[in-house]
Amino acid sequence: MLIKTRDDGFVHPQSSEITPQNIYRDRRQLMRLMAGGVAGAALAAWAVRDARAQMPAQGAKLAGRKSSVSGASTMERITDFKDASSYNNFYEFGTDKSDPARNAHTLKTTPWTVGIEGLVKKPGNYALEDLLKLSPMEERVYRLRCVEGWSMVIPWVGYSVAELIKKVEPLGSAKYVEFITLADSKTMPYVGSRVLNWPYVEGLRMDEAMHPLTLLAFGMYGEVLPKQNGAPLRLVVPWKYGFKSGKSLVKIRFTDKQPATAWNVAAPQEYGFYSNVNPLVDHPRWSQANERRIGEDGLFAKKRKTLMFNGYEAQVGQLYAGMDLKKYY
Ligand SMILES: Nc1nc2c(c(=O)[nH]1)N[C@H]1C(S)=C(S)[C@@H](COP(=O)(O)O)O[C@H]1N2
Ligand SMILES: [Mo]
């Protein structure tokens, strides 16, 4: 049964009536109801996926066209979906790698809006449905390198955050972008714990945010994002340590001052603002020269050498020309 829930005609199936059979019937029905094209399909998929949230079945499809951005896809072996969706850092849901997959089902991803604030001509609350339609979806296979010394290769679906930034027109005085994520203690059991200051905040310099590789992701592996991976939308900054890629974004704020980021506030000697992947700059408590690729951790798996800027130096090296990367870590 399709229920009309919003004035703008956004529809979703009622979850109590969902069975594996009628999902596909409803999905086809939604596809017909929605405007054609990629955005329409994405929106329909979105609605179905939310209704299926409690089900063990795979999520709804969210396909993207192949990206034309230089360096946007590595040919390295893609990490299994199972690993990418069960070995996570999402401290709002617990600090063990297995906690987010177990706990994130409580996250409510509809309705969802992203507030655009600060030094910008078009501030306001942007509905997820509108963000999904803002630009064509692309698939990009990025390496993700966690500061803890492991990595994955994940096919994300989304578009450059630059597309959104251009639409909202930041003022000339905006030098940084602050990315603020959801902190809802009712649905996120560790919000309120003392591990970090909540909300989890990250930030980029304006030119980093505008770089075409910086992705606003809505999906992975051709499906909408699993909750533990940061549904309904997150950042992915492939040349920086994974913690720069905030999950479940609710606000994007344009500022003239470098944002106070969650990890930098928690441990400034260990985590800087830039956090570019750099095998030559060790973490104070461990080396960053090598990494373990998740899914390769058998007896004979060798550690891989960590690459400068996580392998994206050709694309982003120029952003840091002349900077002392030992000082600005
Ligand atoms: N809101 C929020 N975003 C977050 C985190 C977090 O704890 N909370 N962890 C970060 C870290 S440390 C990493 S490595 C990546 C992991 O993303 P993945 O689970 O999709 O691989 O998410 C980042 N984004
Ligand atoms: Mo991480």
Description:
By secondary structure, this protein is an alpha+beta fold. It has a single domain, classed as Sulfite Oxidase, Chain A, domain 2 (Alpha-Beta Complex). It has nine helices and 15 strands. Strands 3, 6, 7, 10, 11, 12, 14 and 15 form an eight-stranded mixed beta sheet that branches. α1 packs antiparallel against α2. The longest helix has 15 residues. The chain is globular and about 50 Å long. The N terminus is likely disordered. Bound molecules: ligand MTE and molybdenum atom.
For the record, give the distance between the C-alpha atoms at the N and C termini, rounded to a whole number: 53 Å
The beta-strand count equals 15
- List low-confidence stretches: 1-40, 50-58
CATH superfamily: Oxidoreductase, molybdopterin-binding domain
CATH topology: Sulfite Oxidase, Chain A, domain 2
Number of helices: 9
Number of domains: 1
Bound molecules: ligand MTE, molybdenum atom
Which secondary structure elements does this structure contain, and how are they paired or packed?
Blueprint: E1 2-4, E2 11-13, H1 20-33, H2 37-51, E3 65-66, H3 81-84, H4 99-103, E4 113-118, E5 124-127, H5 128-133, E6 138-145, E7 150-160, H6 161-168, E8 176-181, E9 201-205, H7 206-210, E10 215-220, E11 223-224, E12 234-236, E13 249-255, H8 262-266, E14 290-293, E15 304-305, H9 313-316
Parallel strand pairs: 3-6, 4-13, 7-14
Antiparallel strand pairs: 1-2, 4-5, 6-7, 7-10, 8-9, 8-13, 10-11, 10-12, 14-15
Helix pairs in contact: 1-2
Bound molecules: ligand MTE and molybdenum atom.
Ligand MTE binds at residues 88-92, 144, 146, 181, 200, 229-230, 242-243, 245-248.
